[in-house]
Write a structure and sequence with these properties.
There is one protein chain. This protein has 13 helices and five strands. The protein folds into three domains: 1-32; 35-300, SGNH hydrolase (Rossmann fold), CATH 3.40.50.1110; 306-334. Strand 4, helix 10 (212-229) and strand 5 (237-239) form a beta-alpha-beta unit. It is an alpha/beta fold. Helix 3 (59-71) packs across helix 11.
Length: 334
């Protein structure tokens, strides 16, 4: 009888232990539950605020906070972002690392900001080509300032600028973009949500001759069109910064968003995230942005840039010079 009582007691103890362990396991899972955000890209994603200054709170961090506030679930944000990163270096130096791959696998939200440095690097190389110099420009702004000074001294340089812009290379950027998307597709989980930012015009502040700034906008729009083109295939949403007021909230360098600018990007990003998914209740249809139309290669001419005034003046001067020569020749013969 005593033995049976002991057996029943042991069973009760074991049952209690099992119940306690089960509850502890549930509580542990709940305690560890969080929304994990992994940010990839350049200085904008990093939150750059100037040399020797502490980084701003970047838009991925602000987005993680916003999602946490709406869901009541703690969030964590890790950043794989570097200053000056272009799409080629994104693939070779960031996405190829084990750490980046592991965070892709864990991420509930993935953000990507890349492309502005591709544009800036191309602009610097274009300036070197047009000016026939091997000078290494500190920034695209340095290159553009030097280029405009060169144009003031030699207006015919505009023709060389046109030639470079007319032959802009989109193929390399598209190759690198697709390579990055394939890497994300390889590692990210099916339930993750991914958003990418497109490119705003970082040189709009320059007073460029004629329609050169319009040509640069065409280039940016064509780069953005590449991002939109693959959105459905690789399951991501595009944040449209090109038509936003982000350029009204840049730092003194005219390129990087200030803290309010980072907040603007975060607010646009939040609209692309279905926070209900994290609570098992998908709550909204994500509105898709209208993709820009691919701009065909327009063959710009000196007339396109300078307009009819200067061209007419040159033509009139040439006609006058011709008439002068004709008159002198006629007088000599007389």
């Amino acid at each position: 009888m005593s033995m049976k009582r002991n057996i029943r007691t042991c069973r009760s103890v074991l049952a209690c232990l099992f119940l306690i362990l089960t509850c502890m396991s549930v509580f542990t899972v709940q305690a560890e539950e969080k929304v994990f955000c992994a940010a990839y890209g350049d200085s904008i994603a990093k939150g750059y605020s100037g040399r020797k200054k502490e980084d701003l709170r970047s838009y991925p961090e602000l987005l993680a906070d916003e999602v946490s506030g709406k869901t009541g679930i703690p969030s964590e944000c890790v950043k794989h972002a570097r200053n000056g990163l272009d799409s080629r270096r994104l693939n070779s130096e960031i996405l190829s690392t084990d750490e980046a791959a592991k965070d892709m696998e864990r991420a509930d939200i993935i953000t990507l900001t890349i492309g502005a440095n591709d544009l800036m690097i191309e602009l610097k190389e274009a300036a070197q080509e047009v000016l026939g110099t091997e000078r290494r420009f500190v920034s695209a702004y340095d290159a553009m300032d030097t280029l405009m000074e060169g144009v003031e001294g030699n207006p015919l340089l505009i023709m060389r600028i046109l030639d470079v812009l007319n032959n802009w290379d989109y193929h390399t950027f598209e190759e690198q973009w697709v390579a990055a998307m394939r890497t994300f597709a390889q590692y990210r989980k099916d339930t993750s949500q991914m958003i990418v930012t497109n490119i705003y015009n970082p040189v709009g502040m320059f007073e460029l001759p004629g329609t050169i700034n319009e040509i640069l906008e065409d280039i940016i729009l064509n780069m953005n069109e590449i991002m939109y083109r693959y959105a459905q295939e690789y399951d991501y949403h595009v944040i449209d910064l090109f038509t936003s007021d982000i350029c009204d909230h840049l730092q003194d360098d005219g390129l990087h968003p200030d803290q309010k600018g980072q907040g603007i990007i975060a607010a646009l990003a939040e609209k692309k995230i279905d926070t209900g998914r994290f609570m098992g209740k998908p709550e909204k249809e994500i509105q898709k942005e209208t993709a820009p139309q691919r701009t065909g290669r327009r063959r710009f001419s000196l007339f396109t840039i300078l307009g009819p005034g200067p061209i007419a003046a040159v033509a009139a001067a040439a006609m006058l010079a011709g008439m002068t020569v004709w008159w002198r020749v006629r007088r000599k013969r007389a």
